[in-house]
Amino acid sequence: MNDLYRLLVGLVKADGPMSFARYMELCLGHPRFGYYMTRDPFGQTGDFITAPEISQMFGELVGIWCADTWFKMGSPSPCALVELGPGRGTLMVDALRAICKVPGMAEALSVTLVETSPILRQTQKKALSEAGFTIGWAESVFDLPKTPVLLIANEFLDALPIHQFIRTDKGWHERVIGLDEHDQLCFGLSPEQINGFDKNAPIGSIFEDARISASIIEQVALHLKIYNGAALMVDYGHSKSGFGDTFQAVKAHGFVDPLALPGEADLTTHVDFEGICQIARGSGVAVSGPTTQRDFLLALGLSERASKLAEKGSDEQRLAIRAQFDRLTSTSETGMGKLFKVIAIHHPQLHDLAGF
């Protein structure tokens, strides 16, 4: 039982069972014990690896997408390049390297990273120290520069807190986290019946309510509608809304009990892309996608970029580049190329964005 576990037990004893959203918020973001506040979880030595850490090609192609979109926006200056949840800064480093080759774009850009973790902010500062840009940090999407914006969010939405609801024979009830007879954290149901969900859903159906993601999408959409621009979002999830429990905990590249080590494992859920698209369109902006990560990267020229890099490399490097390519585009059920989806939310007057 770690410090956060004891804190959670105390909160449940004092206030009663807590929602999934509150549990995720504390496990990931508690200022002293939160997962992202106490460590750098990325890479082979961490708990999971993201596409930018797999290959420089991913970030470079995102940079090319930003450049193409900037031209279609009319090459505005100033323009803010923003990343939500930028991890180690790897994606931004690779994207800026590609952007610097575009005449006039580097001079037009300001760079803002939306990051709450002090440890990751320091890592980002070091990674971007020689990028040739002045880097600013913000706490949330409500602090974005009041200019046209190119926004990147790679594996950001999946870690935002959700609420879960279960259909029982007595109706819908919120799924909560409470204590068993031994004062151990356990799953339970709120006794209060919740109205407004599908009454015909099969008993046992689980609905995940991503209202925090919804509020962020609404804010991003409002900014794009007022100031112009586009937001590229890449994450694992499903293209169609539906029922199901996607809550999971990952530690050392494997799945673990999400209640066993609070604050020591990453907690995520699959992103409902259909729901996000509906929210964005309802906020008055346009949406491109969703498409799969494989199709998006191939449309941007991943094959050509991999071939060019391989031409200059040793036999060992060529094998590594091939392995990176395969990992980014794998179409197995759990492969990144199929499981990860890509959408772009953008100003209604922007059309034919690359990759879609």
Which helices and strands appear, and what pairs or packs with what?
Elements: H1 3-15, E1 18-19, H2 20-29, H3 51-54, H4 56-72, E2 79-84, H5 90-99, H6 105-108, E3 109-114, H7 118-127, E4 135-138, E5 149-154, E6 163-168, E7 171-179, E8 185-194, E9 206-209, H8 211-227, E10 229-238, E11 248-251, E12 254-256, E13 266-268, E14 271-272, H9 273-282, E15 286-292, H10 293-300, H11 302-311, H12 315-329, H13 336-339, E16 340-346
Parallel strand pairs: 2-3, 2-5, 3-4, 5-10, 10-14
Antiparallel strand pairs: 1-7, 6-7, 6-9, 7-8, 10-16, 11-12, 11-13, 15-16
Label this structure with key terms.
single chain; 356 residues; alpha/beta; Rossmann fold; 8-stranded mixed β-sheet; 5-stranded antiparallel β-sheet; 37% helix; globular
What fraction, in percent, of the residue positions are helical?
25-40%
CATH class of the largest domain: Alpha Beta
How would you classify the quaternary structure? single chain
According to CATH, the homologous superfamily of the largest domain is Vaccinia Virus protein VP39
Main sheet record: 8 strands, mixed
